[in-house]
Amino acid sequence: MDIGIARENRPEELRVILRPEELRDIAASHSVIVEQGAGEGIGIKDSSYEDVGARIAEKKEVYACSLVVRLKEPQEEELALMKPGSVMFSMMHLPGNPHLRDLLKKYRIIAIAMDEVENPLGEREIEALHQTGYLGMEKGFELWGGKPSECVVKIMGYGHLAYGAIQCAARKFARIIILNKHDFKNMREHIPGTDILVNAINWPMEKRGKEFIITRDMLILFKKGAIILDLISNPPGQSPIETMHPTTLDNISYLVDNIIHTSCWGWPGLDPVNISKRYSLQVTPILKEIAETEIDNLPEYIRLATHK
Question: Would the pTM of this model clear 0.90, i.e. be above it?
Answer without folding.
Answer: yes
